[in-house]
Amino acid sequence: MSNNLIKEFENIIESGSRDEFLLRQIDPKRLPAHIAIIMDGNGRWAARRSLPRVAGHRAGAESVRATVESSARLSIPYLTLYAFSTENWKRPRLEVEALMGLLREFLRKEIRSLKENNIRFQTIGREEGLEPAVRREIDRARRETAMKTGTLLTVALNYSGRSELVEACRRLVMEWLATGRDPSELTEADVERHLFTAGLPDPDLLIRTSGEMRVSNFLLWQIAYSEVYVTDTLWPDFRRADLFEAITEFQKRERRYGDVKPVEKGSLSVANMK
Ligand code: FPP
């Protein structure tokens, strides 16, 4: 059944390898449409090797490359990566500069591969808070991939879920004041229209690396019904096989969105209560 997927990774994964074994477990008909990832553990990865934190981020950028490429091969429609939170500005200046440098380098080096893999690129977050050199690179990647129709890669930069919600509230207040509508008319769809992620479906699967059980201010509204998968693997070690494992685990979950299983519904029907 997974033959189509195997074909997508032909000449890339070895026959009989663990990657192939895991890929064969994936049901191509039930892939998550949107995968969001909290990439954590770069610092610990570096510390374990007595390397500076920046070395962990550099290795993490390689995991980004691998994960983006694998998601495109799997035809995952949406991939959203948490690269820099509004809280990350508190880190030492040199680390912040290194992270911004890595992002620019990634965009410069990977733009060709993004295009070849039919990937569209965008960011979410307060872009105006980023330095001009980073913004120029983001703008170029966004423009050059604007017509691509495969995976939409969204990188969260200078992002936090709470600030996104505050921004949405501001815009809603302005809209309501301008149109004189009654507050009771406000719906969830109105809020969604004003989020940075407007137009994207909510994540089906939220992956967090390095074992921490936190959501760290990421997509707070959007992950209401996401399946959460936490792995102990540190982000710089996260590779194709880890993505396949997360997807396999996701496919084992039963999503009910607050409802009960249809069979349980039957057992609660009035006829059965007699
Ligand atoms: C968390 O690890 C990771 C980050 C804050 C940054 C993520 C950035 C990258 C993976 C590199 C560049 C990104 C792109 C999109 C090319 P941490 O430093 O908090 O790790 P720790 O908890 O072990 O200290």
Please explain how this structure is put together.
- With 274 residues, the chain is an alpha/beta fold.
- Helix content is 46%, strand content 12%.
- The chain has a six-stranded parallel β-sheet with strand order 3-4-2-1-5-6, with helices on both faces.
- Helix 3 crosses helix 4, helix 4 packs parallel to helix 5 and helix 5 runs parallel beside helix 6.
- Bound molecules: farnesyl diphosphate.
- The site of farnesyl diphosphate (FPP) has 20 residues, from helix 3, helix 4, strand 2 and helix 5.
Supply the number of helical segments: 11
- Sketch the major β-sheet: 6 strands, parallel
Secondary structure: number of strands: 6
Helical fraction: 40-55%
Per CATH, what is the topology of the domain at 34-160 and 205-253? Undecaprenyl pyrophosphate synthetase
SSE layout and pairings?
Layout: H1 3-8, H2 18-25, E1 34-38, H3 42-48, H4 53-73, E2 78-85, H5 93-116, E3 120-124, H6 132-144, E4 152-159, H7 161-179, H8 188-193, E5 205-208, E6 227-230, H9 240-252, H10 262-267, H11 270-273
Annotation keywords:
274 residues; alpha/beta; binds farnesyl diphosphate; Undecaprenyl pyrophosphate synthetase; 11 helices; 6-stranded parallel beta sheet; 6 strands
